[in-house]
């Protein structure tokens, strides 16, 4: 296609991203104008000239071609960081299916000047008795707003409150201003550059440790790869093997070369120990970015980056877009974590996007995990990534002794409790010897499957090999293909009547354990108990200080925390994640179990782990108990190949939503018909449409259609055609479509 026109933005601030201007591309510049290219253009009236960035190319004029002016020149020299991030946005747009604006807003986050964050505290001036009589007076005069403010301040330590508390209590700035005029309160404003609370305290000093022979091998191997083929590197090392130590070593080398480093972690509150360690080594050269930061806080960090004060950015996935001018390395810790997939359009995969940014800017990419994703490990197999392994824990530390408790046996022996006899015994002796225990209930992805308590049989889709989800009317549905079947009353495998929805909540577990161990101090950590910003750290700190004996929690307690007094780790129901209704259920289970087992025995006292399940023979449970990643991977990849799931094949999800359920169903069927006509081969398989796991959310119906195909190019071609079809067809006007590739 011959490109004749370019969309250009002149100023990279959030507002102007929506405003591009079209210019024509003179023939002699055609080869050198791309997304991200800096160009000189005529702008405004007369002979004014300015610089801008190309954000899009096309062959159609958007206005009268007579009025479109030509690009004057391409600005010579190395592509700027903004240019690189625009090029990255163009790649994201075409890979994940979004508009260029959505992609630009992701890669070029808030750039406009924010006033430095000021913290305003409202202070009550009179002493308490005087304030109380004032309060009385306002009440009598029905000045309720003023009375409420005084009441609130009186109730607070130091008789002062910040903006958030005032806002929460519904007190307006106007009320504050009026009381300030009357001399009753004072507004005390201070500017601050606040670090996230997790970082206020740095970790212990870490001396530059001498690498063990295995660590040295891995480190040298990675450096060799960088100076050779420079493929993305995957570091597979069990917990405690020294992955973080290698990140630190390689980061140091990059900084010595005057280059910058981005370190990505799944979520800051779950990785604070890692952040603190890195901070203790690099101190003020680090900018910490996280999602709960205000715009002002983020702006402060960007300023430090622009001034060159910060050369390392550490944070969750959006930190990938940190505008470093000579980026040397992107590290992705815990690369298997689902947090690396964005939930907002463009629904990008952080690992793929990091690799693309690395390619554009000449930066290396290093991913690390104790339990690599099947996707990444597969790419090591195919030679797209380079694999490095750290097989042992540092200092010869042993992994805990792991046992599997067969819950079918418990049922047969008449034990209906949530705890197997083995776990009860171990818990008792753990508590008797003054140690701590962690109990896990992994609810991630759990959508309500039906299973038999006698034999463990789970009702699955005959076509897709995933568990069926139970709906309130008793029907069971497959959320890939829409297959449905009525309520099951006896087990089709053993005839037992003990078949039904598999249920378990953390609160119920807490109650039951409280009644078996009335003297134990129990902490619970789940979505309910961690609503507020600091509650994660509070619960973890309290447990680390041994203020409780048992910590019961969902998957969020599994990640990288070191509790030296924990000698027992119990997985209450491995099946919860094993039979989540998606094709990655076994992979998630393996990852969770390995991490859960690794929580025990971090200290010198050794440890023990117990995994409770109705499927003791399942490969992901057996492999996790033995910490045998390779045997897990072999079984898993064979299954993926057989069922044509990623990474063996590409799988595109087309999510549709609409207020009108009937119309949505029709539209999705049209899409199916369209794709059947557009596909080049019958090897391109269409599955669905089917209602989504939660079919109706906030008055919108949801439905999904899947495309399975080996060749990624073919999938992208079909999506491109579909996007055009939908755009010109009025029947899709009230249908909202979203695309997910290989989720
Ligand atoms: P991972 O990130 O793989 O879990 P870490 O890098 O956190 O592993 O290492 C685990 C523990 O062992 C840390 O406390 C670390 O300081 C220590 N450690 C690892 N390698 C060495 C080494 N070569 N010398 C001294 N201590 C080490
Ligand atoms: Zn059965
Ligand atoms: Zn199915």
CATH superfamily of the largest domain: P-loop containing nucleotide triphosphate hydrolases
CATH architecture term of the largest domain: 3-Layer(aba) Sandwich
Q: In DSSP terms, counting alpha (H) and pi (I) runs of 4 or more, how many helices?
A: 22
Distance, first to last CA:
32 Å
Largest sheet entry: 7 strands, parallel
Structural class: alpha/beta
Structural features:
single chain, 743 residues, alpha/beta, GIY-YIG endonuclease, Rossmann fold, 5 domains, seven-stranded parallel sheet, six-stranded parallel sheet, binds zinc ion
Description:
With about 750 residues, this protein is an alpha/beta fold. It folds into five domains: about 100 residues, GIY-YIG endonuclease, CATH 3.40.1440; about 80 residues, no CATH class; about 190 residues, 3-Layer(aba) Sandwich (Rossmann fold); about 190 residues, 3-Layer(aba) Sandwich (Rossmann fold); about 90 residues, Alpha-Beta Plaits (2-Layer Sandwich). The protein has 22 helices and 30 strands. The strands form seven sheets. Strands 11-12-10-13-14-9-15 form a seven-stranded parallel β-sheet, with helices on both faces. Strands 16-26-25-17-24-23 form a six-stranded parallel β-sheet, with helices on both faces. The protein has a five-stranded antiparallel β-sheet with strand order 2-1-4-3-5, with helices on one face. α3 packs antiparallel against α4. The radius of gyration is 29 Å and the shape is globular. The two termini are about 30 Å apart. The site of one zinc ion (ZN) has 8 residues, from loops.
């Amino acid at each position: 296609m011959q490109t004749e026109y370019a969309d250009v933005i002149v100023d990279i601030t959030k507002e102007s991203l929506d405003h591009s201007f079209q210019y024509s591309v003179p023939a002699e510049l055609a080869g050198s104008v791309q997304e991200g290219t800096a160009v000189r253009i005529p702008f405004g009236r007369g002979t004014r000239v300015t610089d801008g960035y190309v954000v899009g190319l096309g062959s159609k004029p958007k206005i009268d071609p007579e009025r479109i002016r030509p690009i004057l020149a391409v600005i010579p020299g190395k592509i700027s960081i903004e240019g690189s991030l625009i090029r990255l946005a163009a790649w994201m747009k075409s890979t994940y299916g979004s508009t260029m604006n959505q992609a630009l807003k992701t890669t070029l986050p808030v750039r406009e000047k924010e006033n430095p964050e000021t913290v305003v505290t409202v202070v009550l001036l009179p002493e308490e008795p005087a304030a109380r009589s004032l309060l009385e007076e306002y009440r009598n005069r029905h000045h309720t707003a003023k009375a409420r403010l005084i009441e609130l301040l009186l109730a607070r330590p130091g008789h002062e409150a910040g903006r958030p508390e005032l806002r929460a209590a519904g007190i307006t700035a106007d009320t504050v201003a009026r009381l300030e005029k009357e001399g009753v309160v004072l507004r005390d404003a201070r500017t601050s550059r606040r670090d996230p609370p997790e970082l206020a305290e740095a970790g212990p000093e870490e001396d530059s440790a001498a690498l063990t022979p295995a660590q040295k091998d891995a480190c040298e191997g990675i450096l060799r790869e960088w100076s050779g083929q420079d493929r993305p590197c995957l570091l597979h090392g069990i917990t405690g093997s020294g992955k973080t130590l290698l990140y630190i070593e390689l980061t140091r080398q990059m900084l010595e070369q005057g280059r910058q480093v981005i370190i990505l972690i799944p979520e800051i509150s779950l990785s604070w120990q890692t952040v603190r360690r890195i901070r203790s080594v690099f101190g003020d050269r680090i900018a910490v970015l996280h999602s709960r930061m205000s715009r002002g806080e983020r702006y402060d960090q960007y300023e430090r980056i622009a001034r060159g004060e910060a050369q390392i950015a550490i944070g969750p996935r959006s930190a990938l877009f940190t505008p470093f001018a000579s980026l040397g390395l992107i590290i992705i810790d815990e690369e298997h974590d689902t947090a690396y997939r964005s939930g907002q359009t463009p629904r990008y995969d952080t690992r793929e996007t990091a690799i693309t940014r690395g390619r554009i800017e000449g930066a290396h990419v290093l991913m690390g995990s104790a339990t690599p994703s099947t996707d990444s490990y597969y790419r090591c197999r195919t030679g797209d990534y380079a694999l490095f392994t750290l097989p042992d824990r540092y200092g010869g530390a042993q992994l805990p002794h792991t046992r599997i408790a067969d819950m079918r046996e418990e049922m047969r022996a008449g034990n209906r409790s949530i705890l197997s006899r083995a776990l009860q015994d171990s818990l008792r002796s753990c508590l008797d010897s003054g140690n701590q225990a962690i109990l896990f209930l992994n609810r991630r992805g759990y959508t309500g499957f039906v299973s038999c308590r006698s034999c463990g049989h789970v009702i699955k889709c005959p076509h897709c090999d995933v568990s069926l989800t139970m709906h309130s009317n008793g029907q069971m549905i497959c959320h890939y293909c829409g297959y449905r079947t009525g309520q099951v009353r006896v087990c089709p495998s053993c005839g037992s009547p003990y078949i039904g929805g598999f249920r378990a909540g953390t609160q119920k577990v807490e109650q039951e354990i409280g009644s078996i161990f009335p003297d134990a101090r129990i902490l619970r950590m789940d979505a309910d108990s961690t609503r507020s910003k600091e509650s994660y750290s509070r619960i973890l700190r309290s447990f680390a200080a041994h203020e409780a004996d048992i910590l019961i929690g969902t998957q969020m307690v599994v990640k990288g925390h070191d509790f030296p007094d924990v000698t027992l780790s119990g997985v209450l129901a491995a099946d919860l994640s094993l039979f989540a209704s998606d094709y990655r259920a076994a992979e998630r289970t393996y990852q969770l179990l390995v991490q859960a087992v690794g929580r025990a025995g971090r200290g010198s006292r050794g440890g023990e782990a117990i995994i409770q399940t109705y499927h003791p023979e399942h490969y992901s449970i057996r492999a996790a108990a033995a910490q045998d990643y390779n045997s897990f991977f072999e079984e898993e990849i064979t299954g993926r190949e057989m069922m044509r799931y990623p990474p063996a094949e590409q799988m595109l999800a087309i999510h549709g939503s609409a207020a009108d359920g009937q119309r949505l169903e029709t539209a999705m069927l049209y899409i199916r018909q369209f794709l059947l006509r557009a596909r080049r081969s019958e090897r391109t398989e269409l599955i669905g449409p089917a209602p989504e796991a939660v079919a109706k959310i906030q008055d919108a119906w949801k439905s999904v259609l899947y495309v399975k195909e080996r060749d990624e190019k073919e999938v992208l071609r079909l999506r491109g055609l579909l996007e055009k079809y939908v755009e010109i067809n009025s029947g899709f006007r009230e249908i909202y479509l979203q695309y997910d590739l290989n989720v």
